[in-house]
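input
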Amino acid sequence: MKAQIRTLEAVIAVTILIGTLIAFSHKNRPMHKLSILGYKLDAYNAFRLLEETGQLRENVMNNNVKELEESLKPFIKCNFDVIIFNETTNVTIIPKFVSNEIVTACYYIAGNLDEYSPKKVCVYMWGFE
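output
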């Protein structure tokens, strides 16, 4: 009986060792998806801050992409382009992207108080570090 218990202990110990070795042998675990999520959160936080100051609504309603990009630069730490869409199509030019890993953050604006003119502003981000 004592030999069977020692054999069982040895099997359990070997199983734990193999499991530990397999877990630590994958050194390059993809933390990339978490960093991409961070970029999306940065974009949404930037949208929120610009909306609170009124800059986002003003720039989107006036289709002023360049000024909007300048306002977003301090918040987004990767390559990005801003595109504004109205109800049916894009208002600004969609650029050609050089990466196949693109993350998008979008924000919807209904218009001003005096008129309903829904628009969607999207930030396309790539070139993550």
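quick obs: The helical segments are 2-25, 32-53, 55-61, 65-72.
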